[in-house]
Design a protein that fits this description.
Layout (H helix, E strand, L loop, with lengths): L3 E5 L5 E10 L32 H9 L3 H15 L7 H33 L2 E6 L2 E6 L8 E5 L7 E3 L2 E2 L5 E6 H4 L1 E8 L10 H5 L3 E6 L10 E5 L4 E4 L4 E2 L4 E3 L3 E9 L5 H4 L10 H31 L3 H4 L8 H5 L2 H16 L5 H14 L1 H4 L14 E2 L13 E4 L6 E12 L2 E4 L4 E2 L12 H12 L4 E3 L2 E3 L2 E3 L1 E2 L2 E2 L2 E3 L3 H12 L3 E6 L2 E5 L5 E10 L7 E7 L5 E7 L1 H4 L3 E3 L2 H13 L3 E10 L1 H15 L5 H12 L3 E13 L3 H10 L3 E5 L4 H10 L8 E5 L1 H6 L2 H19 L3 H4 L8 E6 H13 L6 H10 L3 E5 L3 H12 L7 E5 L5 H6 L2 E5 L6 H5 L2 E3 L4 H38 L13 H11 L1 H10 L5 H6 L15 H26 L13 H23 L5 H23 L13 H6 L2 H28 L3 H26 L10 H6 ...
Helix pairs in contact: 1-3, 2-3, 3-11, 7-10, 7-29, 11-29, 11-31, 17-18, 19-29, 22-25, 29-31, 29-33, 29-34, 31-35, 33-34, 33-37, 34-35, 34-37
């Protein structure tokens, strides 16, 4: 049997899906019922790992050889194996093997950790009812249709339908923090016909089927029905479905829960984004530069091959007397000979793209990641943990972020509400002061009717539950002076704040017992109200109501909600006074609610019951019918007053967001919370300011106007204002400060935008219009977002024409999808589990640590690796271009300019360690300056240090230096005797001279670029040069028995024994470094960047502090200090100052 239901997808696509039939307890239907058609469902296994034991090697190798560099070096290695080349295959094969092996071990270890986490989840114990008994099994063995027993504080192992509860009213309370980020308690309801079941035997005797929709990712929707044989059908909704990952609270146990979705078909699993390999912008730039250098390499090989055969066109040059060919060489076809020569030239010049660069980059990323882990400022005393790095491949991406997507609850806020004040008919009550601000009346003496009704309304209009005590981590909560005291839990934390605020003002909500709500009034008298109906809150109505019956038999309808949803339904009350107070509180960033009531006659109450029951029993369009019933009932109110609640932000959250804005980043808040709550948080965190003009793109507005009209109206608004102010987005870039517009959009409207974009591909592009609106907004708030929608928002921005770098940060499992989708994902080690931290690239204890991670660590990482990449290409152009020029003077014979040892060790030993250390410890500007001036982050935005002009400058500088090395040495050699006995230097001496100038020049170039000098810098830079000299002396000073040639014997010593050689080395080094020095001086003088200006300011400040410290030291009778001593002197500054003031 199949039915078809129209269900809106999370992505905005409405499709027709068939239903699934679940047989409770796997029992066959009775005779005469529909046939049992077996359906196959997955088991309850969760898989988040990427590899298996069998596919790890082929899959990992495939991913690694997708990198252009790895594939290129593999080809070069194979060429060296196949043909006779000037260099050994080991020079390419060994480094490549090292890189592939290290990377595979690293990725395999990370995936092994994911396997461990999956096993811990899949093997956790679960209780199942079988044949009237409770049997314990493992989570992964659950099947669709099993009857599961869940106890308090346990997590639901799969998506379940609630059949019965230990509570007499058939309800249970659940926290869904890991799903939607809300750590408050929510109420779920058992099936009406099974809620009376109390034992395993009763539950096991149930003979019924559940017919429901196929798995959908939307967390907030579920449509189905339960068919109890020999009885009737009953509709099922989202209030009956318990989702995997949620936790049972304030309920001892729930019986007879039926599994409907298991494993990767649960709503939580469907909202997970698949984990893909992330690649940084720097790596993409490296690949682009690699392609350019590959083209240069091929061009060099082609030019040399053509010129070689042009040179050998003359017979006497084709086969000179000193180099006769073999018979096989004479018979070989010219095309084959040319191709072989081409490959030989490729291998000879192949060092222009060194594999050592990729080894160094991997080491720099891995070792550099420890600086985040070791950062004491990012250590949280409360958690006892610091920042964590889950992947080091994206360190430099932290310095390129343009969009920050953040969760709200638990990320920006502590999810801790505090009641601030309430306003009744214009009179303001503050619990801590307990006075009426307007008339200065003490609260106990006030006895107006509306005041009493207002306080009773807030004590009755809620879904708060009372619990006597709770044990959390071994500490009993709710114990006061040895006596148990009650505390409140609710699906909404601000409801708890309101009830607690009323308690401080003299009206205490006691309990809900046998459907009667009890409150203790200010006269210490208990009042009982029968709870008849609850009209639950929803994001469209933005209000909730209760219908109660007082002890005198009077029917009362109490309603609270957003001012925009309450004021239009008011018929009497002091509207203007209350509205003025609400507006003032909203400006201060407080969350406000309005409270109203209405007295119902008997006939009005019966009519309301009729509307509600008719809507609740509808299987089709149940939500729309309930909304219509609520609209009929909630009208003709009398206004009582308003409340103000503060949602506490995390420490320094507002300062962090302000710094991110100054750094040129756009901040978006993506939350599953309702619009009013999220908007209040945005104001408190300074995401929205008082001057921000809010643009709404919400379901409520699109119901009043068409989506087309709303989008075009908003677009006209921002474009009109932009044209007035002369703002030009194209000229100044995507991530600069935009006009002060703030956009609010909800999940339903986002789905409509994406759906309309697909349906109207030929008549209009709503997606581009939406992105255009977002580009012109300084901040965007996306509320009522499903987890998968968060990922879709991130993907939408990633795919826009500017292709900005995105960062997503959150603390719950509902944030995992967007964390995986963004270029950089950061998890917060919050109160909502570690799913986000485990699936993220980086994990931090608090939101405030994001500021230092981006503005300091991200800045340093990008500066360091950008210099590393450019420097590596530069020093290899310097290395290989003389080899290219040398072919013009050796008849294109593929004769190496340098000795084999120099070819092998240049990138491995002589020049690799200084740049590795530079890329780990360089600080071109101090940490304090970077934190104090976030705008410096803009200097490195848009991959500014790896753009094509900068790349061409470094390449041209390398070519210039190479020309100086080669021709400088060549002209000094020409017709000149260098030794005392008149002996001319040979080709190996010439190559050694060029190589010596090369090593010293590229090392001193790095020394000139170094701003932050430590003892280890001096040791490595000067030590590398000393190592080269010592190695050359040993290599040429000893006859090595394992070598079949001794061409370098005494060459280096002979070169150093010549005075002109020393002069040549010093002169060529100076000439090579001079242009870069002049260029830097001119740029700093004529058009300095913000970073260079900050460096100058810091130097002036350092000089001033040195003079002041010298003055202080001289007064104490100590010798004066020079600027070079300041680093040491500053460390004892506090000690000296304290001694000075004491004396």
């Amino acid at each position: 049997l199949y039915i078809y239901l129209s269900l809106p997808q999370c992505v905005g696509e409405e499709i027709w899906v068939d239903s699934r039939t679940v047989y409770i307890g796997h029992k066959d239907p009775p005779p005469g019922a529909e046939a049992n058609i077996p359906q196959r469902y997955p088991d309850n296994r969760i898989v988040s790992s990427k590899y298996t034991f069998w596919n790890f090697i082929p899959k990992n190798l495939f991913e690694q050889f997708r990198r252009i560099a790895n594939f290129y070096f593999l080809v070069i290695f194979l060429v060296q194996l196949i043909i006779d080349t000037p260099t050994s295959p080991v020079t390419s094969g060994l480094p490549l093997f090292f890189v592939i092996t290290v990377t595979a071990i690293k990725q395999g270890y990370e995936d092994w950790l994911r396997h461990k986490a999956d096993c811990s989840i899949n093997e956790c114990p679960v209780d199942v009812v079988q044949q009237g008994k409770v049997v314990r099994t493992q989570s992964h063995k659950l099947r669709v249709g099993d009857i599961v027993v869940v106890r308090e504080d346990e997590t639901f192992p799969c998506d379940l339908i609630l059949l019965s509860s230990s509570r007499h009213d058939g309800t249970c309370y659940v926290t869904t923090a890991s799903l939607d980020g809300e750590s408050s308690h929510k109420t779920y309801y058992a099936v009406q016909d099974t809620m009376a079941f109390r034992t395993e035997q009763e539950v096991d005797s149930l003979h019924a089927t559940i017919e429901c929709e196929q798995p959908q990712p939307d967390l907030y929707k579920f449509v189905g029905r339960i068919n109890i044989y020999k009885d009737k059908e009953e509709p099922l909704g989202a209030e009956n479905l318990l989702l995997r990952g949620a936790t049972l609270k304030n309920t001892q146990h729930i019986y007879g829960t039926v599994a409907v979705y298991t494993g990767m078909e649960t709503k939580m699993a469907l909202n997970y984004q698949s984990k893909s390999q992330k690649r940084s912008a720097v790596e993409k730039s490296m690949n682009a530069f690699l392609i350019v250098y590959l083209c240069i390499l091929i061009s060099k090989a082609v030019i040399n091959t053509v010129l070689k055969y042009a040179w050998q066109w003359s017979p006497d040059r084709d086969e000179p007397w000193y180099n006769h060919r073999t018979e096989n060489e004479r018979q070989r076809h010219m095309v084959i000979r040319a191709f072989t020569d081409f490959l030989a030239f490729m291998v000879l010049f192949n060092y222009i793209i060194p594999v050592s660069m990729y080894v160094t980059v991997e080491m720099q990323k891995f070792l550099g990641s420890y600086f985040i882990t070791w950062d004491e400022e990012m250590f949280d005393e409360e958690l006892g943990e610091g920042a964590q790095v889950n992947t080091s491949d994206l360190n430099e991406e932290l310095g390129q972020v343009e969009y920050v997507f953040t969760d709200k609850t638990g990320t920006l806020t502590e999810n801790n509400m505090e009641f601030i004040e309430c306003c009744v008919d214009g009179n303001v009550y503050i619990p801590t002061i307990k006075v009426i601000i307007s008339d200065i009346y003490i609260l106990p003496n006030v006895c107006f009717e509306h005041e009493d009704l207002f306080f009773r309304a807030l004590c009755l209009c809620h879904t708060v539950q009372v619990k006597e005590e709770e044990t959390v981590d071994g500490i009993k909560r709710g114990i006061h002076q040895g006596r148990p005291t009650s505390f409140y839990i609710s699906s909404s934390p601000d409801e708890v704040a309101l009830v607690e605020g009323m308690k401080r003002l003299g009206y205490t909500y006691l309990r809900l017992k046998d459907n009667y709500m009890e409150i203790l009034n200010k006269d210490d008298e208990i009042e009982r109200f029968e709870l008849l109906h609850v009209l639950n809150f929803d994001s469209v109505r933005r209000r909730m109501s209760v219908i109660v019956k007082s002890s005198s038999g009077e029917y009362l309808l109490f309603c609270k909600g957003a001012d925009s949803s309450i004021f239009p339904r008011i018929v009497s009350g002091k509207v203007e006074q209350v509205k003025a107070r609400v507006e003032q509180n909203a400006i201060e960033g407080l969350r406000t609610l309005c409270v109203a009531y209405r007295r119902l006659s008997e006939s009005e109450y019966q009519e309301a019951c009729h509307h509600l029951n008719e809507a609740k029993l509808a299987l089709q369009d149940r939500e729309q019918r309930l909304a219509q019933a609520y609209d009929i009932i909630e009208r003709d109110f009398v206004l009582l007053g308003a409340t103000a609640v503060e949602d506490r932000l995390q420490e320094k959250a507002a300062d962090t967001i302000e710094s991110l804005h100054k750094a040129g980043m756009k901040v978006w808040v993506l939350t599953g919370d309702k619009m009013e709550t999220a908007a209040a948080t945005c104001y408190a965190s300074k995401l929205f300011r008082r001057s921000t003009q809010i643009l709404e793109l919400t379901k409520k507005r699109t119901e009043e106007q068409s989506l087309h009209d709303v989008l075009f109206e908003l677009n006209r608004t921002v474009l009109r204002q932009r044209s007035i102010s002369g703002y030009d987005r194209v000229s100044v870039g995507l991530s600069v400060d935009c006009l002060d517009f703030g956009l609010i959009i909800d999940g339903a409207t986002l789905s409509a935008v994406l759906k309309a974009n697909q349906e109207r591909a030929g008549s209009g592009n709503y997606r581009e219009i939406f992105l255009e609106i977002c580009r012109n907004c300084s901040a965007v708030l996306c509320c009522r977002m499903a987890p998968l929608q968060k990922a879709q928002i991130v993907k939408l921005i990633k795919a826009s024409k500017e292709h900005p770098i995105t960062l997503a940060i959150g603390d719950g499992a509902n944030d995992v999808s967007m964390i995986l989708e963004a270029h950089v994902g950061i998890g917060i080690m919050g109160k909502e589990g570690r799913q986000a931290a485990r699936n993220s690239d980086y994990a931090i204890p608090k939101f405030k640590h994001l500021k230092k991670m981006l503005l300091v660590h991200g800045h340093y990482y990008y500066i360091r690796i950008a210099e590393l990449v450019q420097y590596f290409f530069y020093k290899n152009v310097c290395f290989i271009f003389p080899q290219f020029l040398y072919q013009f003077f050796c008849g294109f014979s593929q004769q190496p300019l340098y000795d084999t040892a120099y070819l092998t060790l240049y990138n491995i030993s002589f020049t690799s360690l200084p740049i590795l250390l530079y890329s780990l410890v360089e600080q071109h500007i101090t940490m304090e300056t970077l934190k104090r001036d976030p705008s410096l982050y803009r200097d490195i935005a848009k991959n500014s240090l790896l753009r094509w002009p900068v790349f061409l400058y470094w390449t041209c500088l390398g070519v210039f230096d190479a020309v100086i090395f080669f021709f400088g040495a060549y002209f000094l050699f020409d017709n000149t005797t260098f030794t005392s006995n008149g002996q001319m230097f040979g080709n190996w001496t010439f190559g050694t001279l060029v190589f010596t100038v090369l090593v010293f020049t590229v090392t001193l170039k790095l020394a000139l670029d170094t701003h932050h000098w430590t003892w280890i810098n001096h040791f490595v830079i000067w030590g590398s040069l000393l190592f080269y000299v010592i190695f050359s002396l040993l290599w040429g000073g000893i006859i090595w028995p394992f070598l079949n040639y001794q061409r370098m014997y005494y060459v280096f010593m002979q070169m150093l024994s010549s005075g002109p050689a020393w002069l040549s080395i010093i002169l060529l080094i100076t000439v090579s470094l001079l242009p870069d020095v002049i260029k830097k001086v001119l740029c700093r003088t004529m058009c300095p960047t913000a970073t260079e200006r900050a460096q100058v300011t810091y130097c002036h400040q350092l000089h001033s502090e040195t003079k002041a410290l010298n003055c202080l030291v001289s007064r104490l009778g100590v010798r004066c200090l020079s600027c070079s001593d300041f680093c040491f002197a500053k460390a004892i500054n506090q000690l000296l100052l304290s001694s000075f003031y004491e004396n």
